[in-house]
Amino acid sequence: MLSVDTPSQAMPPRKPKFYQSLYVQVIIAIIIGILLGNFFPDFGAGLKPLGEAFIKLVKMIIAPVIFLTVVTGIAGMNDMKAVGRVAGKAMLYFVTFSTLALVIGMVVANIIEPGAGLNIDPASLTSEKVSEYVAKAQDSTLTAFLMNIIPTTVFSPLVEGNILQVLFISVLFGMALASVGDKAQPITELLRLATAPMFKVVSILMKVAPLGALGAMAFTVGKYGLSSISHLMLLIVTFYITSLLFIIFILGAVARYNGFSILKMVRYIKQELWLVLGTSSSEAALPTLMQKMEAAGCKKSVVGLVVPTGYSFNLDGTNIYMTMAALFIAQATNTDLSISEQFTLLFVAMLSSKGAAGVTGAGFITLAATLSVVPGLPVEGMALILGIDRFMSECRALTNLVGNACATIVVARWENALDKEKLASAMNGK
Length: 430
Hints:
Elements: H1 22-39, H2 41-45, H3 48-75, H4 81-112, H5 128-137, H6 142-149, H7 156-160, H8 163-180, H9 185-206, H10 209-224, H11 233-257, H12 262-268, H13 270-279, H14 286-295, H15 300-313, H16 316-332, H17 339-355, H18 362-371, H19 383-386, H20 389-414, H21 420-427
Helix pairs in contact: 1-10, 1-13, 3-8, 3-9, 3-10, 3-15, 4-11, 4-15, 4-16, 4-17, 4-20, 5-18, 6-17, 8-15, 10-13, 11-16, 11-20, 13-20, 14-15, 15-20, 16-17, 16-18, 16-20, 17-18
């Protein structure tokens, strides 16, 4: 009689060592980049291509990721009114908290007055770089924005990588598939099958994220030097603290009201945050953020609409920066602004931030457009903060990322498109 051997119990998978974690590798890369840039500035500045190459790799994959996520999400929705409802709720959230961020930046700048006492003559401020931003600001009106969102052809957004245009085409195509019904099932299924290998490409690209973070950080410190921030340290510290308090108290209150902890959410997306810190670009984390929001229980259709739209319209960190920087320039150049002029700045910043959405360097372009509407406030004052803008861009991007993650969960809950068990599991690290 033949004996049958009982298969041995499978060994549990080994837990990866801490240094194999991507976010730990990115942290180490950031530290090495700072050291290289500080002690070997020329060598550090020469590592700029590493950072630029990584950002380019990520941007290469953003358009197909958004297209596949949005199209398959909308195609699977039975009620087409839900698409408009999700978009409407998302825009209501974006407008509310973007405006609140502008107000907070204005209030803090008036209280701390980081530019007071510098006594800088506006006539001494000249910069070709500022002139470039002013010229771009003239093209960032709402009319230009509307023209920017409509692509030249159906396929051009996938080639050019304009996020708003990709989203526009994706929503149209997704609605078309949903309206056709069963006839579109083979196409919808094909796109769903294509989603898995596309996100696998994302995970492959993320393996070189530490190199990108190292190169970007080494370039920043090597090019501008840590000493360049000393004379404007008060503005930098004020901006960082204000952004932190905005996340903890404002977004924290919103998160608590909607049944989750903002601190647990920040811990959940820590890998994306470190990646953004190292590269100074929130776009570097867009593909993986969409994955994580879906894994946290947010419905794919909501994630596909809210996250890409938020990257253009929900810029909390950028908005805090804009009003704070504008008032800093006024204080530094001894330009007195009345309350009505400050509210004019606030109103124009709110509109121009939407007009510059999707434009490269949108934060500085919006600032140029905002400064130009108040007579007597020198646009040339932007030259004061050009040198430290790179050091402040990290905080802007981090705050924007946290704000978009929070918005996605909130809108999903409003839409009853949130799996609360998955959310609790994700927030608790399971």
